[in-house]
Amino acid sequence: MTVTVVGAGLAGCEAAYQLARRGIDVRLVEMKPRKKTQAHVSDDFAELVCSNSFRGDELTNAVGLLKEEMRRLDSLILSCAEEERLPAGGALAVDREGFAALVTKRICETPGIEVISGEVAEIPDGQVIFATGPLTSDALAARFQELFPDRKFLSFFDAAAPIVTRESIDFDSAFFASRYDKGTADYINCPLDREKYLAFWTELKSAEEAAVHGFDDGGVFEGCMPIEVIARRGEDAMRFGPLKPVGLIDPRSGREHYAVVQLRRDNAEGTLYNLVGFQTHLKFGEQKRVFSLIPALRRAEFVRFGVMHRNTYLDSPKLLDRYYRLKSDARIAFAGQLTGVEGYVESAASGLLAGIEKARELRGMAHIDFPAETAIGALARYISGGAAGAFQPMNVNFGIIPPLSERIRGKRERYTKISGRALGIIDELREGGI
Question: Measured by CB atoms within 10 angstroms of the end CB, which terminus of the chain is less buried, N or C?
Answer without folding.
Answer: N
